[in-house]
Amino acid sequence: MGGPLSYDDVPPPRVWLAFAFLGVWLYLISQILRGYPTAVSGATGLDPYVAFQVLAATSGLGSIMVLSGLVAALWRSNLAAGLSPSGVRGLVLGAAGVGVLVLFEIATILRLLGLEEDALTSLVRAQAVGDVLGTALAFAGLAFLAVGLTHAVGLFRPAREAPPTPKPTAEKQA
Question: What are the boundaries of each domain within the chain?
Fold first, then answer.
């Protein structure tokens, strides 16, 4: 296979990083408020269990935003630096992880809206397993994307030896 491809016209991933940043705040605020479901239910007028479920859904949405934003930003960086096989593997793993998280998040939201099906109930019961699997896949993707970026920019290439300096000969001294 040839050398790394370079895409100089790839725009910087600012929007994806902002998306991930907003996801961090959504996740953080949701997790903090999950510790106070009665206060949240009193402020919103929701049943405490429903308030806890809504905060779980917004927390899941925040984690999806963080991971998808970071995967997309690192993918764009890989494209700009020159694509490597590790970067492609990272995109596949990262997208698979975010996809698993989205699947379980949709199940949580549908159950919150009152849809009760056997398959949906099974997915919601396995929410913890889905969160762990999706997060693990997404972080594996991020790791591969980081490795791909280091390969693309040549961060860990062996140092090239400097060419030897020619020693002055008798002809050059005269």
Answer: 14-154
